[in-house]
Amino acid sequence: MPVDEIALNFTPSSLMVLNIILAIVMFGVALDLKTGDFRAVLALPRSAIVGLTSQFLILPALTFLLSLLVAPTPSMALGMILVAACPGGNMSNFYTHLGKGNTPLSISMSAVSTAAAIFMTPLNLAFWGSLHPEASAILREVAVDPVQMVVIIFLLLGLPLSLGLLVSHQLPHIAAKLKGPMKYFSIAIFGLFIVLALAANFENFITHIGAVFFVVLLHNGVALLLGYFGARALRLPERDRRAVAIEVGIQNSGLGLVLIFNFFNGLGGMAIVAAWWGVWHLISGLTLALFWSRREPAGVPLPAAAD
Fold this sequence. Notes:
Helix content: over 70%
Order of helices and strands: HHHHHHHHHHHHH
Low-confidence stretches: 301-307
Number of helices: 13
Mean pLDDT: 82
Oligomer: single chain
Number of domains: 1
Shape: globular
Strand content: under 5%
Number of strands: 0
CATH architecture: Up-down Bundle
């Protein structure tokens, strides 16, 4: 069956579980944030502006052009646009730290992009999706309500983020005890859920993984290259280039999956693109971070050799 005609096997109870899992993930992320992380953007305005512009303006535009060039099926094209419209993923800060990038900049961009996604994700999806000559028909058919999407994204991102920040600020001793276990627990349950969801749709996944693999590989590569070389072209320091590259290349595809099942009834091409992106960007991000971990950023002195 063509991927555009597939509706993945996903029950209302499964959707509820996925919504709760994403909210738990965002609460765990917020426990590690402080209100100062948002203000820190003001201390690094140039680098933050480059990163957030790449994230929310340039990447969706390049994704739109890439979808026209590669010409995947309409639902896969819309899946690419939705993934590009999502904020940075929760592993970007860890990968930036591992790859000797500017971790405070990464944390600040993650915090701001997550908050901005409440409005920017529906806006980018509606704008670029409606311009696509084939994917636009899907948007018209499902009649996505942007206001309803904003409300759902607020409940999934904004509310857990606010609660986590509140706990971090008002009850720092509790946040300190929770943030470590919460981080690993949320990653584990989200990963388990993705594995179970793929297992329930294994036949569809195996049938279409060849085309999806190539599309996601190319799309993720474009995102990483955009982040790094865009920052390089604007003469940001090497540590900032690494942070921007990882922030732009690691997307919150979990949010994309939630929106696909809430608004598009698990449309096959969209869901498989988002699900495989969620797997692949962890592999590509870790590979890049390990590569950079062995190379000191230019301009950063090497540690003094022991006598």
